Amino acid sequence: MVRNKLTFNIGYLSDLSPFDILLTIDKLMVHTKELTTENMHDETDRAVPKDTGALRASIHAKIDESFYEGRRVEIKIGPPIFYGKYVDKMSTSQVQHAVDPEAVGNYSDHLVSEAKQRLSLNWDLSKKTIGAQ
Description:
Layout lengths: L9 H5 L3 H30 L6 H10 L3 E3 L2 E3 L9 H5 L3 H4 L11 H25 L2
Antiparallel strand pairs: 1-2
């Protein structure tokens, strides 16, 4: 799990009410979640093996269940489709083919690692974006 601390410049805080601070934090969390889910959709399209597209579609549906609540963003990853766990155990050489040359074996580990990186990067990007508003 990626944990980041939110810090503000004290001078900036003096201009904000407690409600405004909470509203800003909420905007940061929502923006981070939106960026990360978008990134994970793109990464799923790139890295998850495709035959019929059902596996990718099921992972997209799971990612769409991601949410922000309280002080955490939860990005849901995993295939609800029954054969996803079997495809996930295949090596890269077993899943790559001419139609899908970028597919990776053990895709769920790859997606989790990517989500952790993206959450951290998107948190920093959100602080810059929301902070500039």
